C-alpha cells in the first residue's frame, strides 16, 4: 500500500508523536475494507505509539483517530491518500497531543462553541482544495469535544455521494444540512457557524503600505515593502488566490515542478518571516484617497495607509447564461482536477478551447465516458501540442463555432444547449456536467464606482512603476492591464509596485 519513500517520510513525522493514538476501524469483507486494513497495519507497524482495533459501528469502511481513552471526533471514511495523506498525518499528530498551528482568535472561537456540531466533508483524492477544509474541521474536532468531523471519500462512497447530490468537492454538511461548498479557510468556516459570536475586528494604526490581495502579486509586494523597513499590512479574504486551484506548476524558474497549494504555503511562510500585519478573512468594498488612502471593509470597518497596492487577482470567467449560476456545484464546475472524479463514466462538456479548456478535456477523457469541447471561435486557441494530444483521444468531440446558450436540468445538470454560429441552428447535448474554462476576469468589481481607472475588460490601468491614476494607489498582478497573466509575472509586478510605492513615500516625505 505504502511505497518505501512514503514510509520513510512517515517515519520522520511519527517521531513527533506526543502520545499514543488508536485507530478504531469499521471493516467489512469488501475490497475497500481490505485496502484500509492493509493501510492501517502498515502505518501502525511504524511506531510503538500507534495501535489498530476493529469495531462494529459506523460506515464500512472507515476509521477514527483517537486517544486510548478518549474519542477525538475525527473519522476518515475512505483511504486518506493523494492530497489527503497530509490531512491524515496532521490528524494523527494533533490527536497525539501536538498543538495545531492556528491564530489565537481562531482558537478562542473554537473553544467558545457549546452546541454539538457534526461535520461531514465529501472529497475527492485529486482535489487540491479539499485538504484545507478537512484539516480545518479536524482541528476544530481536536480542540472542542462538542465538534466531530468525518471525511467521506467520494470514490469509496459513490452511491452515497450521488444520493446526496454531491457534484462538487469539497462539500460540507453540518448536522445533516449542506453547510459549505468549495475551498475555505478555518476562519471562513468559523464565520459560517450561525451561533458563534463573531470576534470584533481589531482596529489598526495607519500603514505606510497596505497591500490588498493575498496572491503571488500581493505576497511579493508585501515582502518588498516590509524589507524597506516600513509599516506594512496585507489584507486578504484568503491567502493564496487563484494559484490554490492550480494542480501542477512547472514554469516557476528554479522550481521545476510544484503544486499550487504547496507553493503558496511556502510563499505565506516567506511573508511571515517579515513584519507584515496579515489581516485575513476580510473583504475590501471601497477605496477613497485624500491625505491618506482609505480602504472600506465589508464588516463596516476601515483601514488607512499612506500608500495602497491593489493586488486582488482574478477568478474564472463566467458564461453568464441561463443555468450557470443555478447549477453551480450541481454539475457546473470550474476545476476538472477537483470535481472530475465525480463524473466518472458520464458524459460531460468543456466550454473553452484555450490551454485550460483543452488540458481539462484531456484529463476528463481519462475519467468520463465522453467529453464534448465547445469553442466559440472557428479554431481552437490552445497550444498545438495540446491540440494534437486531444485529437488522439477517441472519446472526445470538438464542436467549433459554438455559442453556448444555456445549461439545463432539474436539480442537477442534464444537458447543454448551444447555437451553431454559422447556421444559427440550436443544438442540445445530454451531459451530466459542464466545465467552464473560458479564461479569467479581474476581481475589480468593487472598484467600478471609485476613482481608480479601469479599462474595458475591468482591469486596473497602471503605469510602468505600478502607479494608478489615483495618487498613492498602485496595482499589481492579474487585476491589472498586464498583458500576460502568469504567476512569475504577477510576482514581478508586485515587487515593482512595492518599489514604486516606496519611491512615492520617499518623494512625499
TrEMBL record:
Cited PROSITE patterns: GLUTAREDOXIN_2, PYRIDINE_REDOX_2
Pfam families: Pyr_redox_2 (PF07992), Thioredoxin_3 (PF13192)
Record-annotated FAD/NAD(P)-binding domain positions: 207-494
CDD domains on file: AhpF_NTD_C, AhpF_NTD_N
The UniProt record lists the keyword Kinase: no
GO biological process: response to reactive oxygen species
Listed SUPFAM superfamilies: FAD/NAD(P)-binding domain, Thioredoxin-like
Binding site for NAD(+): 347-361
Cofactor(s) the protein needs: FAD
One of the record's GO molecular function terms: NADH-dependent peroxiredoxin activity
Family annotation (NCBIfam families): AhpF
Family assignment from sequence similarity: Belongs to the class-II pyridine nucleotide-disulfide oxidoreductase family.
Protein name per the record: NADH dehydrogenase
Source organism of this protein record: Enterococcus canintestini
Amino acid at each position: 500500500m505504502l511505497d518505501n519513500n512514503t514510509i520513510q517520510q512517515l517515519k520522520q513525522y511519527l517521531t513527533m508523536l506526543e502520545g499514543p493514538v488508536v485507530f478504531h476501524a469499521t471493516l467489512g469483507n469488501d475490497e475497500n475494507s481490505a485496502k484500509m486494513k492493509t493501510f492501517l497495519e502498515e502505518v501502525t507497524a511504524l511506531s510503538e505509539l500507534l495501535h489498530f482495533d476493529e469495531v462494529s459501528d459506523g460506515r464500512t469502511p472507515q476509521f477514527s483517530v483517537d486517544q486510548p481513552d478518549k474519542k477525538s471526533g475525527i473519522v476518515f471514511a475512505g483511504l486518506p491518500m493523494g492530497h489527503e495523506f497530509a490531512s491524515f498525518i496532521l490528524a494523527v499528530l494533533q490527536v497525539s497531543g501536538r498543538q495545531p498551528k492556528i491564530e489565537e482568535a481562531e482558537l478562542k472561537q473554537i473553544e467558545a462553541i457549546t452546541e454539538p456540531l457534526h461535520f461531514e466533508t465529501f472529497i475527492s483524492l485529486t482535489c487540491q482544495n479539499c485538504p484545507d477544509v478537512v484539516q480545518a474541521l479536524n482541528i476544530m474536532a481536536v480542540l472542542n469535544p462538542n465538534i466531530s468531523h468525518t471525511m467521506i471519500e467520494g470514490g469509496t462512497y459513490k452511491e452515497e455521494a450521488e444520493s446526496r447530490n454531491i457534484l462538487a468537492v469539497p462539500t460540507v454538511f453540518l448536522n445533516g444540512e449542506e453547510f459549505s461548498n468549495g475551498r475555505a479557510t478555518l476562519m471562513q468556516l468559523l464565520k459560517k457557524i450561525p451561533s458563534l459570536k463573531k470576534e470584533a475586528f481589531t482596529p489598526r494604526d495607519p500603514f505606510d503600505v497596505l497591500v490588498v490581495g493575498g496572491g503571488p502579486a500581493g505576497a511579493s509586494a508585501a515582502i518588498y515593502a516590509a524589507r524597506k523597513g516600513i509599516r506594512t499590512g496585507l489584507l486578504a479574504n484568503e491567502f493564496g488566490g487563484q494559484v490554490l486551484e492550480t494542480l501542477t506548476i512547472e514554469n516557476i524558474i528554479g522550481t521545476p515542478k510544484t503544486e499550487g497549494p504547496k507553493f503558496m504555503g511556502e510563499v505565506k511562510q516567506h511573508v511571515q518571516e517579515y513584519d507584515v500585519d496579515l489581516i485575513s478573512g476580510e473583504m475590501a468594498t471601497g477605496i477613497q484617497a485624500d491625505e491618506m488612502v482609505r480602504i472600506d471593509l465589508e464588516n463596516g470597518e476601515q483601514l488607512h495607509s499612506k500608500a495602497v497596492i491593489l493586488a486582488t487577482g482574478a477568478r474564472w470567467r463566467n458564461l453568464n447564461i441561463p443555468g450557470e449560476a443555478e447549477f453551480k456545484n450541481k454539475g457546473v464546475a470550474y476545476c476538472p482536477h477537483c470535481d472530475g472524479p465525480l463524473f466518472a463514466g458520464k458524459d460531460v462538456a468543456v466550454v473553452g478551447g484555450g490551454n485550460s479548456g483543452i488540458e481539462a478535456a484531456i484529463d476528463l477523457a481519462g475519467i468520463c465516458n465522453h467529453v464534448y469541447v465547445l469553442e466559440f471561435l472557428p479554431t481552437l486557441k490552445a497550444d498545438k501540442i495540446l491540440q494534437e494530444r486531444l485529437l488522439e483521444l477517441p472519446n472526445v468531440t470538438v464542436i467549433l463555432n459554438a455559442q453556448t446558450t444555456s445549461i439545463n436540468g432539474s436539480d442537477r445538470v442534464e444537458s447543454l444547449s448551444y447555437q451553431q454560429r454559422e447556421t444559427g441552428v440550436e443544438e442540445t447535448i445530454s451531459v451530466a456536467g459542464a466545465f467552464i474554462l473560458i479564461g479569467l476576469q479581474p476581481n475589480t468589481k468593487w472598484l467600478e464606482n471609485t476613482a481608480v481607472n479601469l479599462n474595458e475588460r475591468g482591469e486596473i490601468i497602471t503605469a510602468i512603476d505600478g502607479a494608478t491614476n489615483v495618487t498613492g494607489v498602485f496595482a499589481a498582478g492579474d487585476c491589472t492591464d498586464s498583458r500576460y497573466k502568469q504567476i512569475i509575472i504577477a510576482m514581478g509586478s508586485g515587487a515593482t509596485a512595492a518599489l514604486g510605492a516606496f519611491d512615492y513615500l520617499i518623494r512625499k516625505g
